[in-house]
Specification:
mainly beta; about 0% helix
């Protein structure tokens, strides 16, 4: 018997700072809901809009896997490891914060907003050496199928993190059905609907809804309209080892 949790789009935390509008699926900053702290190893899912020319100044992180997925516009990244880069729609950025890093993120555009997802995953190893990576994906590879964008394996498709997790993006035409088979026992999947309407395991979902499901081996996915979805498979228990 599977277990599920549904987070409708309008129930998310809502923080509007003027230059930044952030919707929080899980507790973050001033938004705290004891029922919505994390989904297994998935700790943060922020749906951020940054106004033109604005951004986050240098700030620290440690012992967290941080994934950024730009949806619109260009985001400039700088960090204490000396990386300076631009990430845009079609890119995926990952940082293993490990023993500690500082970074900043700015909207490079002077005439348009940047929209991106910021996702934090608890690592399965603490105190690792900080690392940064980004890749550009072929958007055609997610048309009517699931494109892997993240895994635990450096030699696999997408970026990799210190966690037994797999992320996929899919862009489906109305009426297309697909299936996702979980990669690891004890994992669950958190689905986030980027646009459109889909049904996952008989649960209807609309744009920006979140749906977590665990104690299941596979998901059935049907696009009820043209739709884009993000699937995040993560361990449901969080075990961390120190790396000295």
């Amino acid at each position: 018997m599977s277990n599920t949790i549904l987070h409708k789009a309008e129930t998310r935390g809502d923080a509007n700072h003027g230059w930044l509008h952030s919707r929080h699926t899980f507790s973050f900053a001033n938004y705290h809901d004891p029922e919505r702290v994390h989904f297994g190893a998935l700790r943060v899912l922020n749906d951020d809009t940054v106004e033109a020319g604005m951004g986050f100044g240098m700030h620290p992180h440690d012992n967290m896997e941080i994934i950024s997925i730009p949806l619109e516009g260009d985001l400039e990244h700088k960090d204490s490891m000396g990386n300076v880069s631009l990430i845009k729609h079609g890119d995926v950025q990952v940082m293993s914060a490990g023993t500690g890093i500082y970074h900043s993120e700015y909207n490079k555009n002077k005439d348009q907003q940047v929209k991106f997802l910021q996702i934090w995953v608890f690592p399965n190893q603490k105190k690792v050496k900080p690392r940064y990576d980004q890749i550009t994906l072929n958007l055609a590879d997610r048309h009517n199928k699931l494109q892997q964008i993240l895994s635990p394996n450096a030699d696999d498709a997408g970026v990799w993190i210190y966690q037994n997790a797999w992320f996929h993006l899919g862009n489906f035409d109305k009426g297309v059905a697909s299936e996702y088979n979980l990669r690891a026992k004890g994992n669950g999947v958190y689905a986030f609907i980027l646009s459109g309407s889909v049904t996952i395991n008989n649960q209807p979902l609309n744009s920006r809804d979140g749906f977590g499901i665990w104690d299941v081996d596979a998901l059935s996915i049907t696009a009820d309209s043209d739709a884009e979805i993000l699937l995040m498979e993560v361990p449901m228990s969080v075990l961390q080892e120190n790396r000295e």
